Description:
This protein has a domain of 64 residues. Helix content is 13%, strand content 35%. The protein is built from two helices and six strands; from the N terminus they run ββββαββα.
Amino acid sequence: MQKFQGPGKVFLELDGAIYKRELIAGQKLKVDNGYVAAMTSGVDLNIETVKGVKNIVFGGEGLFLTTLKGPGTVWIQSMPISKLASMFYVGGNH
C-alpha cells in the first residue's frame, strides 16, 4: 500500500473495470485482497482469514478477505494483476 497526500496528480495503473463505492460510517465491504485498488484515508482496512473448510476448499479465490470499513471512498478493480498475469502464461485460462 502506498499513501499519497498533498497537491499534485497521481497516476495509478489499475486493471479491468473500476468500481467506486462510498461507504458511510461503520459500513463494511468485504472483497478478495487483490481487488482493492485505492481508498481514502478515512477507510479502515483489515485482513481476515476465511473461516470454514467449505469456504477454503470451494471458495476459489483464497484464504483471506479484506474488510473495508467506512467512512470514505473505495475503488475496486475487477482484474487484479495476479488474475491478469495468469491469462497470459502458457496453459492459463483464456
